[in-house]
C-alpha cells in the first residue's frame, strides 16, 4: 500500500537516485507540431546531448535548458495554443470528479466484490469528493430511489438465470481491466511526449496521479472494515466474493475507522490538487491534443462509473433483504415515494 507513495516521493526528489532515471524526454512528439520540434532539435543538439548524458557542466538542469532551446522564438499563436491546452488539462481532474466513484461506493462494493473494487479504483483517474470527511455508510448507495433506467435494467437482470448473471459479472472484470489499460496507456503516452514546466525531467507523473487513487480507496475500504465488531481479519480467500457487508453495515465507528476516514478524505483532496499541478504544467501539447487526452481519461472514468453502477445493482439483487433491511433501518420513506423491494422471487414496487 505504501509503494505508490514511495514512488511519488522518489519522483519528486532531487537526490542522486533521480539523476539515474532513463532519459526518455524529447525523443517522441505529439503529431500536431512534431515536424517543428524535429527541425528545432537540429539546432539544439548541445542542450539535448547534455540532457541525454546528464551533463550538468553547462546547465544545472539540462532538461529545462533543452526545453527552453526548443521553445525559443515560438510564435504567439503556438504559445496561445499551449496555454489553452494547459487550461484544458488543468480542468481535467476537477471535471472528472463528477463521474468518478465516491469513497462510499467503492467501499460498499469492496464488502462484496473486493477484487473488482480494487480494479475499479485503479481504473478510475478521479475520485468524487462529494462525501469526504463524512461517515462511510455502506448502506448509502442503496437508500435512494432508482431511476427509470436503473429500474428497467434491475428488473431485467432479476429475470435472468445464473449463467447469464455470471457472464455479466465476468464482463464487469473485463471492462474494469480495459479501463485500466486506457488509463495507463494515456498517462504513459502523454508523459513521453511532453515535459512538465516544474519538474522537467521527471518521468511518469501523470501515471502516478492516475493510479494513486487506488491508495485513497484502499484506506476507505479498511476504514469501513473497522466497523466490524470483534475486528477485521484479512484473508485472500474472499477476494472474488466477500460476505462482510452485514458486519460492516451493522457496526459502529471506531478510532481506527475514523482515522482512516480522515486520511482517505485528505488524500482524495491532495489527489485532485496533484493532478491539477501535474497536468496543467505540461508543455509541447496543443489544445486539440489536450481535448483528445481529456476524452481518453473521461472514457476510462465513464467505464468505471458504468461498472460500479451495475455491480451495486447486482448487490441489491443478490444480497436481497440484507441490503434492503439494513438500508430501511436508517431511512424513512417519504409519503408516496416508490421504492424497490427485493426478495428471493423477484422485484416488486410499493408506496
Characterization of the model:
The chain has 351 residues and is mainly alpha-helical. Helices cover 61% and strands 4% of the residues. It is built from 15 helices and 4 strands. It has helices at residues 3-12, 16-19, 34-43, 45-53, 62-70, 76-96, 103-110, 114-123, 148-158, 162-192, 205-225, 245-249, 255-279, 287-319, 321-328; strands at residues 195-196, 282-283, 339-343, 346-350. The strands form 2 sheets. A two-stranded antiparallel sheet has the order 1-2. It is elongated, with a radius of gyration of 24 Å. 36% of the residues are buried.
Give the strand line-up of the largest sheet: 1-2
Q: Quick one: overall form?
A: elongated
Number of DSSP E strands: 4
Q: Overall mean pLDDT score?
A: 80
SSE order, one letter for each helix or strand: HHHHHHHHHHEHHHEHHEE
The major pleated sheet works out as: 2 strands, antiparallel
- Poorly predicted runs are 1-5, 10-18, 330-351
Total number of helical segments? Answer: 15
Alpha-beta content class: mainly alpha
**Share of residues in strands:** under 5%
Amino acid at each position: 500500500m505504501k509503494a505508490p507513495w514511495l514512488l511519488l516521493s522518489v519522483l519528486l526528489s532531487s537526490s542522486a537516485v533521480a539523476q539515474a532515471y532513463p532519459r526518455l524526454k524529447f525523443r517522441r512528439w505529439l503529431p500536431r507540431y512534431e515536424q517543428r520540434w524535429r527541425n528545432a532539435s537540429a539546432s539544439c543538439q548541445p542542450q539535448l546531448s547534455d540532457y541525454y548524458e546528464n551533463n550538468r557542466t553547462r546547465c544545472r538542469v539540462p532538461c529545462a535548458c533543452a526545453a527552453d532551446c526548443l521553445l525559443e522564438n515560438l510564435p504567439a499563436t503556438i504559445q496561445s495554443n499551449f496555454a489553452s491546452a494547459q487550461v484544458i488539462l488543468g480542468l481535467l481532474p476537477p471535471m472528472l470528479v463528477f463521474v468518478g466513484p465516491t469513497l462510499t461506493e467503492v467501499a460498499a462494493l469492496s464488502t462484496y466484490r473486493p477484487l473488482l473494487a480494487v480494479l475499479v479504483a485503479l481504473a478510475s483517474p478521479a475520485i468524487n469528493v462529494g462525501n469526504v470527511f463524512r461517515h462511510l455508510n455502506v448502506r448509502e448507495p442503496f437508500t435512494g430511489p432508482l431511476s427509470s433506467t436503473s429500474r428497467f435494467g434491475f428488473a431485467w437482470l432479476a429475470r435472468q438465470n445464473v449463467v447469464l448473471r455470471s457472464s455479466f459479472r465476468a464482463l464487469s472484470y473485463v471492462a474494469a481491466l480495459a479501463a485500466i489499460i486506457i488509463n495507463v496507456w494515456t498517462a504513459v503516452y502523454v508523459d513521453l511526449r511532453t515535459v512538465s514546466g516544474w519538474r522537467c525531467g521527471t518521468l511518469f507523473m501523470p501515471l502516478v496521479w492516475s493510479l494513486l487513487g487506488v491508495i485513497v480507496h484502499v484506506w476507505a475500504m479498511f476504514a469501513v472494515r473497522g466497523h466490524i465488531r470483534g475486528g477485521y481479519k484479512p484473508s485472500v480467500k474472499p477476494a472474488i466474493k466477500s460476505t462482510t457487508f452485514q458486519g460492516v453495515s451493522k457496526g459502529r465507528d471506531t478510532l481506527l475507522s475514523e482515522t482512516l476516514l480522515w486520511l482517505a478524505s485528505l488524500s482524495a483532496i491532495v489527489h485532485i490538487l496533484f493532478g491539477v499541478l501535474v497536468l496543467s504544467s505540461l508543455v509541447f501539447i496543443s489544445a486539440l491534443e489536450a481535448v483528445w487526452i481529456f476524452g481518453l481519461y473521461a472514457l476510462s472514468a465513464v467505464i468505471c462509473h458504468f461498472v460500479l453502477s451495475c455491480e451495486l445493482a447486482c448487490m441489491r439483487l443478490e444480497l436481497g433483504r440484507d441490503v434492503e433491511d439494513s438500508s430501511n433501518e436508517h431511512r424513512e420513506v417519504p409519503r408516496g415515494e416508490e421504492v424497490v423491494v427485493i426478495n428471493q422471487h423477484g422485484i416488486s414496487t410499493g408506496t
